[in-house]
Amino acid sequence: MNKLYQQITKTVAITLLLLTAFTNTVMAKNVNVQTLGSMEVHYIALDSTFLTPAIAKKNNIERSRYNALINISVLDANLKNHPAKSVLISGTAQNNIGQSTTLDFKEVKEGSAIYYLAQLHYKNKEMFHFTIKINGGNGQKTLKFDHTFYVD
Q1: What is the average pLDDT score of the chain?
Q2: What is the mean pLDDT of residues 55-73?
Q3: Burial level of 116, CB count in 10 A (0-12/13-18/19+)?
Q4: Which of 95, 122, 127, 147 is the most buried (most CB within 10 A)?
Q5: pLDDT at position 30
Q6: CA distances (Å), origin 49, targets 30, 38, 61, 84, 107
Q7: Residue 6 pLDDT > 60, yes or no?
Q8: What pLDDT is recorded for position 16?
Q9: Region 85-104 average pLDDT
């Protein structure tokens, strides 16, 4: 049980470290994790204004009340310490009236961290249904989640 607790604690710490690279206002409760085969996928959708101007500029991200950031990181659950894994990733976001947007993910590497960023424009109270295809070398897996965005 102690080893499992250490692994969970380490995974949470890695996720928070990745998210801290973007903003110090994102809370851990907003981070979602899903296991897809041997991949441990951490994902979050958030308003781009949560990013500091410096971080947004560094990553070529438009800060706007109408612009979301999708952040995906993949860890290799089969390896010791669950290191970050480089993957092929693509996805779409579909709103409730059926309009679909292709997500253009950009891979970002910072030290041993690897994450994938995509931007999405939205309207107030707009819900999106995300379908993300991830290929980590052992076949393609699909991550699905929903998120509603609000304009501040």
Answers
A1: 84
A2: 93
A3: buried
A4: 122
A5: 62
A6: 15, 33, 10, 26, 20
A7: no
A8: 43
A9: 97
Domain boundaries, the chain: 2-149
Distance CA 67, CA 103 (A): 13
User: What type of residue sits at position 93?
Assistant: A
Residue type, 150: Y
For the chain, state the CA radius of gyration: 15
41, 123, 29, 23 alpha-carbon torsion, rounded to 10° = 80
Q: Is there a contact between 100 and 131 (Cβ–Cβ < 8 Å)?
A: no
Whole-number Å distance between alpha carbons of 107 and 136: 14
Residue 4 forms beta bridges with which residues? Answer: none
Class of domain 2-149: mainly beta
Q: Report how far residue 136's alpha carbon sits from residue 117's, in angstroms, rounded to the nearest whole number.
A: 17
| 3 state SS of 50 | helix
Query: Which two structure tokens, joined as six digits, stand for 5?
Result: 């607790």
Distance CA 124, CA 50 (A): 16
User: Does 15 score more than 90 pLDDT?
Assistant: no
How far, in Å, CA of 131 to CA of 142, rounded?
7
Asked whether 58 and 33 are in contact (CB, 8 A), the reply is: no
pLDDT digits (tens, 9 = 90+) for 111-146: 999 999 999 999 999 999 999 999 998 899 999 999
